[in-house]
Each structure stands twice: as structure tokens, then as C-alpha cells.
Design goal:
Aldolase_II/adducin_N, alpha+beta
């Protein structure tokens, strides 16, 4: 957590700390070019209340995001905080997040992106190929969800949850990428490596050469080794290192 005191009497220090961390994640996605103008979202559970979440105010670009731009909403996407008694929240976009938050209590943070590489792999019949070390992080633990149109229909939510299962990452076919984490740092780790794996696959396919796939037992071993890295908290080291990339923005995004 960020040790930043809340400037608002009606927002706890714990919530303000999470707001600052979430604003930092938005800016890091902008830094790594994982944005799509005002579309896509990152959400996180508000501390102290399992049924409330923080998400971006619709219309704010990711590189502009501040703690005060984040809106506290309930599971239906309705605004419930005093900082934004009225404002724009993309409820349709939150359909995906609300379904997963409601079904997966371990999904503290959810990241959804529309990157060129992510959409390209989402459009390929075989999905993510086991051709790089980054891709093997998700070997045997990557979900897929078929495209059903823009996520406006609540009836899609149960199918989305079923398809994700217990995995921490999913490719939304013909759409984009999705990652969850038990913390903001873990969700960042998942989306970063999934995005990089997709970028590498797109680059490899353009080379016109036959692709080499490691043996099944090597793929399985690499997936287990990657899971060990999370248990050993290496994702926290990576998160702290990533934050240093935007350290000069901290006073702004924590406002």
C-alpha cells in the first residue's frame, strides 16, 4: 500500500492509499501503451467493503488518472461516494468486472485491455501459442471467452465467469485481454506478461519461419516455475520497480 494520507475527511486513509495505487496502475498501462483512448477499465475492491469498487471516471485518459478521478461504485455500477455524487461511469464496461468481482472473491483487481497485439491474438483461432517463456507462464491456465458483442447484455455474465473458472487471465476472443489479481501488483504482473507474450507471438508470426514449440513437460515445468514466482512475491519487486518509472508523477496521481 501507498502510505499517503487522505485529503478528504470522508475517505479513509486506507481507501486513499488504494486510490493512489490504482491511479498509478492506470498510468503504468499508459506508459506501456496498453490504452484505448477512454475505453477499457481497471477496477479494484474498495478496502473495508467487499461490495464496493473503485474504477475510472469515464472520459479520463489513463495517463491523466488521479486518485480523485476514481469513482466508488456498487456491484451494479452505481456511484456511491461523496467525491463523485454524479458523473460518468461506463456501466456497460463494468459488466465484465462486476461479474468477476461478484463471483471471485480472490479477484481484488481486474484489468481489461484492447491492445493491438492482444486483439490480434484474440482473433487467431489457436489463441496464445506456447512459443515463448512469457507465453508459458499461462500454459494450462489461460481461459478463453467467445465474443458475444459489446458487453451490454447481463445474460453474458455467467458465461464469462464460467469460462474464466479459477484462472487469473483470459483472452476475450475477437476483443482483448483480461487479467485478475489478489492485489494490484499481481494484476499488473498478469496483464504485463500476457501482453508481452501476445506482442512476441505477433512478431514471430510475421517472420514467415516455422515456429518451435517446447516439449509438453517443459511447458508444464515453466508454468509451475512462473507460479512459484508469484508465491515468492517477485511480482511485488516488479511492481515497485515499475512504479519508479512514473515516480516523478506521484504527487499528481495521488491528488
Amino acid at each position: 500500500m501507498f502510505n499517503v494520507a487522505s485529503p478528504h475527511a470522508f475517505i479513509s486513509n486506507a481507501e486513499w492509499s488504494v486510490r493512489c495505487e490504482l491511479a498509478a496502475l492506470y498510468r503504468l498501462l499508459a506508459h506501456f501503451r496498453m490504452t484505448d483512448l477512454i475505453d477499457t477499465h481497471i477496477s479494484v475492491r474498495a478496502p473495508g467493503n467487499e461490495g464496493l469498487f473503485l474504477i475510472n471516471r469515464y472520459g479520463v485518459l489513463f495517463h491523466e488518472m488521479k486518485a480523485s478521478d476514481l469513482v466508488k461504485i456498487d456491484i451494479g455500477g452505481d456511484i456511491v461516494d461523496q467525491l463523485h455524487v454524479a458523473g460518468a461511469v461506463n456501466k456497460a464496461g463494468f459488466n465484465i468486472h462486476s461479474a468477476i468481482h461478484g463471483a471471485r472473491h480472490d479477484a481484488v483487481c481486474i484489468v481489461h485491455t484492447h491492445t493491438s497485439a492482444g486483439m490480434a491474438v484474440a482473433a487467431q483461432e489457436e489463441g496464445l501459442l506456447p512459443i515463448t517463456q512469457h507465453a508459458l507462464k499461462f500454459y494450462g491456465c489461460l481461459s478463453y471467452h467467445d465474443y458475444e458483442g459489446i458487453a451490454l447484455n447481463p445474460a453474458e455474465c455467467p458465461r464469462l465467469v464460467t469460462d474464466l473458472g479459477s484462472n487469473m487471465a483470459m483472452i476475450l476472443r475477437n476483443h482483448g485481454l483480461l487479467a485478475v489479481g489478489g492485489s494490484i501488483a499481481e494484476a499488473f504482473n498478469q496483464i504485463y506478461f500476457l501482453e508481452r507474450a501476445c506482442q512476441a507471438q505477433v512478431a514471430a508470426l510475421t517472420g514467415g519461419q516455422r515456429l518451435r514449440v517446447p516439449a509438453k513437460e517443459v511447458c508444464e515445468l515453466t508454468a509451475r516455475q512462473s507460479a512459484d514466482e508469484i508465491r515468492d512475491n517477485l511480482h511485488i519487486l516488479a511492481w515497485e520497480a515499475a512504479l519508479r518509472l512514473i515516480d516523478d508523477q506521484k504527487s499528481e496521481y495521488c491528488s
